[in-house]
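ok so for the tutorial part 2 we go from a plain amino acid sequence to predicted structure tokens. step 1 is just haveing the sequence, like this:
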Amino acid sequence: MALTQAKIDSNKEPSTITRDGLNYTLEIYGNREKGAISHIMANLEEQLAKIEINPQVEIEQIGEQKQFKASAERMIGAIIVAVFLILFTLIGMFHSVKISLMILFSIPLTIIGASWTMLAIGYHVSMPAMMGFMLLSGIIVNNAILLIHFALEQIKLGMNKRDAMLESIKIRTRPVLMTAFAVSVGMLPVAQGSAIGLERLAPLGAVAIGGLVVGTLMTLIFIPVGFVWLVDEKSVISED
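step 2 — the prediction. this is what the tokens look like for a chain of 240 residues:
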């Protein structure tokens, strides 16, 4: 007479097994109500750093975060192309690489103010924020053009470069400040993100306000100093 012993045990198994490259995968989905995706993923990475994970387990971000990284790369490429187009346009307008680079130098000045504003408010880099940087590039370059173009015209009329720039500051400061503060006031509702669906564009408004205010004030300081230091009066008169 044969006796058979059996042990009955119960284990929980997934109802569906997914693989990627012959590796088992477990996908975790989540939705967000508001806030930048980069901000959310930064908080997630901070919490994951506190957890001990098996070395054989690999964590990869997909979905919206993966799309954001791909879009950010394309946006950075677009910004680089835009900067070069601005440079070539300025060279065609002023017939001077030195003056064109001086005007282009005003763009990094906006990044200082925009970065301070985002840090103060608590925003992270996102697609709306990068769009705000592109918006700032056009406005701040226009402010520098107003200052330098007027000073060049005064040099051609017989002024020295120092007096020409001082006269440009007296005449052009008001329209420059009016443009900066008008755009900043218009961006306040966007930066507050008070309306439904507008909170995702809040970084754009914050970048525009901080970058314009700080960048404009710094442009009124550094552009005149660079102009007096680098521009040659004889070459300006000879181009006339």
